[in-house]
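Recap for those who missed Tuesday's class. We walked through two folding examples back to back. For each one, the amino acid string is listed first and its predicted structure tokens come directly after. Nothing is annotated here on purpose, so try labeling regions yourself before you check the end of the notes.
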Amino acid sequence: MRYQISGKGMEIGTALQTHVQDEIADMVDKYALRATDAHVVFSPEAHAIACEAVVHLSTGLLARCHATGGDAYAAFDSAVEKMDKQLRRHKRKLRDHHHKRAEPVEVTGGATYILAPSEGDDGAEEAEPLQPVIIAETQTVIPSVSVGEAVMQMELASAAILVFRNERNGEINVVYRREDGNIGWIDPSAGAAG
């Protein structure tokens, strides 16, 4: 497994790097998962240290968590505790559904954009069509999974939304966390009216 351990605005010592690598390796081994990469970033946040940890699993799933603590060790230990809980739930769901994926998840590439907010002109003419200003562009992956796996991946990544290719019909679908706490699912092929 490849590790990328860094600090934003702070130095990361070799003892902390060794601690991070050992703890992540132990956690991944505990759940018999195959991880490919681990990215851990430490940064000062007010009067504490923040830790953002992401582990990429060979199945295409991501486990992501964020925690803060009085020092880097406490922040990391809190983050690992959260990730351990996520991975435990992930393994329980796999066991409960008796579904083991034999092949890795297929993924396709895609671009993500960050757009600048539009500014209202209070009655100004709209002669030109709306042209959003792109302020950042990155690459992302779109996994080809079942709806259940998409929900599980969204929960593992602590994300509010996940775009995926539905294995059942090959169409692009979306799962998202609703304000009422439930999960929403958008499947354009199911609503196609002729």
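Example two. Treat it independently of the first, because the proteins are unrelated.
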Amino acid sequence: MGRLVVIEGLDGAGKRTLTDALTKALHDAGASVATLAFPRYGVSVHADLVREALHGAHGDLGESVYGMGLLYALDRRDAAAGIREDLRTHDVVLLDRYVASNAAYQAARLHQGADSEVVEWVRQLELDRFGLPVPDAHVLLRVAPEVAAARAESRARADDDRRKDAFESDDGLQARCAGVYDQLAETNWLSPWHVVDGADRVDAVALALALNPPGD
């Protein structure tokens, strides 16, 4: 059975870049790797509803913390069988966002912390009720909210398909979310967390060894 490793961080933190670097480092170390990014836009109807709501569609759906949280969770529920199969056939499964994203963003929207009711609701919904695989490790790619915002803005200007949504455009939300992520990491929520500085060049080789040590 492979190891389930989740990369978390703010919008614009560089999670996709880190996923690519870790995948290469793990491959170079002889490990087989599968990757998946959430939300699965263009693949999952629930993810597409999320994207549409974040761009103003579906009335007041985007304003509903629990409604949006449920859609994110349903996207992962539909992907659960594929994740389990990947864990069966690969040494490492790397996920760009997972359950902790839902917990962090919904808590931040409610101006609450990692010990809040909505975080526990997310855990019970996604892990207990939907039976999603529990991560073996998390990587928090920590960057200052203003750095992440600048990267997200640059990305949006370069790619029309990645224009900023309501969450990405809310600087206050991003700052609060960064705080919740720090709290989740401090308490090793669901599994051990590795915190790396996303403002500098990440040593992907060293991180790969920490996440998938030889002999595991």
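Answers for example two:
The mean pLDDT is 91.
The helical segments are 15-28, 45-54, 65-89, 99-109, 117-129, 145-158, 171-186, 204-211.
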